[in-house]
Design brief:
single chain, 9 helices, 3 strands, 175 residues, three-stranded antiparallel β-sheet, 7% strand, hpI Integrase, Chain A, mainly alpha
């Protein structure tokens, strides 16, 4: 599974001056969402006070949306963009298709020396950084919208080994 390092993510997020391209990259990374979910996002889906976004759950049958948390800076940029572009409350924030989104991500990757970067790599990067940082896997499952916890743990648990060691040492103290 391919993912970017935290320093590569930082570099990637600074590639574009264009607010819509920068916003797309931030939403893809900081929510861990799929590109189709990001492109379905409307201003109505955003609760800026609680920093929660109700992303359309496009891959899970029977669920209308999944609630994800977003960082304060991306919320701020999203609000500024929606206001400046006068995006209607039920209109998609991004007015382009998934192929354009893929191109935006790919071009940003090339700008930082990463070949064939695609939107799902940002999802993997988010989840990998969460796991490596000791984040709770059940919470990661909810953020990613996986139906089963095993889907999340099978993919990302290897990156949480430091967290496992800390729990092990706490539970099985010397002596």
């Amino acid at each position: 599974m391919k993912y970017l390092s935290p320093s590569q993510i930082k570099e990637l997020l600074e590639v574009y001056q264009d607010p819509v391209k920068r916003l797309l990259l931030r939403i893809l990374y900081f929510t861990g969402c799929r590109v189709s979910e990001a492109l379905a996002l409307t201003p109505r889906h955003v609760d800026p006070v609680r920093r929660i976004v109700a992303l359309p759950a496009l891959k899970v049958k029977g669920r209308v949306s999944k609630l994800v948390v977003l960082d304060p800076e991306t919320i701020r940029l999203l609000q500024l963009y929606v206001k400046a572009r006068r995006v209607g409350i039920d209109k998609p924030v991004f007015d382009f298709d998934r192929w354009r989104a893929w191109y935006i991500v790919k071009a940003a990757g090339e700008a930082i020396g990463v070949k064939d970067l695609h939107p799902h790599t940002l999802r993997h990067s988010f989840a990998t950084h969460w796991a490596a940082g000791g984040g709770d896997m059940l919470k990661l499952q909810r953020q990613l919208g996986h139906k089963k916890l095993s889907t999340t743990t099978d993919m990302y648990i290897e990156f949480a080994t430091e967290d496992i060691r800390q729990d092990y040492d706490r539970i099985f103290k010397e002596g």
